[in-house]
């Protein structure tokens, strides 16, 4: 049995199509990532799966239970860390954890084993109000609270948004260790670099799934030549490259441009050509695709660009 099974789920808010025909499955013990920018529909899907919102169409099952008819069973079995406001800011660390344990009819002691590795890091601050914790500590407390009733499926909606790089890394290490305990985890993130840390990912944009696969397999399937192109006048170069016959697509990417070429060519030849065309400072390097490149390429196709 799958931990999560989503079948043709759609949801509209008036004129906004938040989710359109979403289907995928998450296995027990799998770390599954929902990767997409703000507004892609991630939180809407989490709220449907955690039985807080009704879908317009489709069906979904969590731990074998149907989200509408059997919502009570699901609520007992899942842990949910919403993007915001999951903690009581005016309760202490210890009080927050006791509160979540109590509403699920358990105690901190009963399930301490599951949260030990995470909770020991914030235990020295157990008398501190949650509102006075750092972002990374809040996140560890929220995860401890979501785990305290020993859920079989864990929903984490953008758990690392607004958290520093070190805490983000620690958090992903914790997720990997929870997975070893056979807990299924559905985690959403707008950070493409976190995608490779998942067993499987769904890329989502404007309510639609662009692709589902293992992250390495997505990267592997990206077989076009890809170049990072850097110059002082990025905008001028972008316009210039868009007109080139070899350009499959070109997009701004941090401080440089990522060019996908439809022809095989060397970085040195491309650099020479662009320098001779007036971009004297241009630097071209051949690079390996990241999940962000895969995402941009797929979303570019969907939007019907060249
Ligand atoms: N209650 C609501 N009423 C109207 N529109 C909504 C509502 N909630 C979400 N939306 C819209 O539905 C779309 C999907 O939003 P959703 O919050 O699910 O996306 P998200 O991927 O979680 O992004 P974010 O991280 O910004 O919340 C967006 O266009 C959003 O503006």
TrEMBL record:
Gene3D superfamilies: P-loop containing nucleotide triphosphate hydrolases (3.40.50.300)
SUPFAM superfamilies in alphabetical order: P-loop containing nucleoside triphosphate hydrolases
A GO MF term: ATP hydrolysis activity
SMART domains in the record: AAA (SM00382)
Keyword Glycoprotein carried by entry: no
Pfam family, one: ABC_tran
Keyword Nucleus: no
Keywords of this entry: ATP-binding, Nodulation, Nucleotide-binding, Transport
Domain ABC transporter positions: 4-231
Residue intervals passing through the bilayer: none
Superkingdom, taxonomy of origin: Bacteria
Coiled-coil blocks: none
PROSITE patterns, per database record: ABC_TRANSPORTER_1, ABC_TRANSPORTER_2
Family in the record: Belongs to the ABC transporter superfamily.
Record's protein name: ATP-binding cassette domain-containing protein
């Amino acid at each position: 049995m799958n931990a999560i099974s989503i079948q043709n789920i759609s949801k509209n808010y008036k004129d906004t199509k938040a989710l359109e025909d979403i289907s995928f499955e998450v296995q027990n013990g799998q770390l599954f990532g929902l990767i997409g920018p703000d507004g892609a529909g991630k939180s809407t899907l989490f709220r449907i799966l955690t039985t807080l919102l009704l879908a317009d169409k489709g069906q979904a099952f969590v731990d074998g239970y149907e989200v509408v008819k059997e919502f009570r069973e699901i609520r007992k079995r899942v842990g949910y860390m919403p993007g915001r406001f999951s903690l009581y800011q005016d309760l202490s660390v210890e009080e927050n954890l006791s509160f979540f344990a109590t509403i699920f009819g358990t105690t901190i002691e009963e399930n301490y084993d599951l949260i030990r590795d995470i909770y020991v890091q914030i235990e020295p601050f157990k008398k501190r109000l949650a509102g006075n914790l750092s972002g990374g500590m809040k996140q560890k407390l929220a995860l401890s609270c979501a785990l305290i009733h020993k859920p079989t499926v864990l929903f984490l909606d953008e758990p690392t948004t607004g958290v520093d790089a070190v805490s983000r890394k620690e958090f992903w290490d914790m997720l990997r260790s929870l997975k070893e305990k056979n807990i299924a985890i559905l985690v959403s993130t707008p950070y493409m670099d976190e995608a490779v840390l998942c067993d499987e990912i769904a890329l989502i944009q404007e309510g639609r799934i662009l692709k589902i696969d293992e992250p390495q397999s997505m990267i592997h399937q990206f077989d076009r030549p890809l170049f990072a192109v850097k110059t002082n006048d990025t905008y001028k170069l972008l316009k210039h490259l868009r007109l080139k016959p070899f350009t499959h697509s070109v997009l701004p990417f941090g401080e440089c441009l990522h060019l996908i070429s439809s022809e095989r060519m060397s970085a040195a030849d491309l650099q020479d050509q662009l320098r001779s065309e007036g971009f004297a400072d241009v630097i071209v390097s051949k690079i390996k695709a990241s999940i962000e490149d895969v995402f941009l390429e797929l979303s570019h196709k969907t939007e019907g660009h060249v």
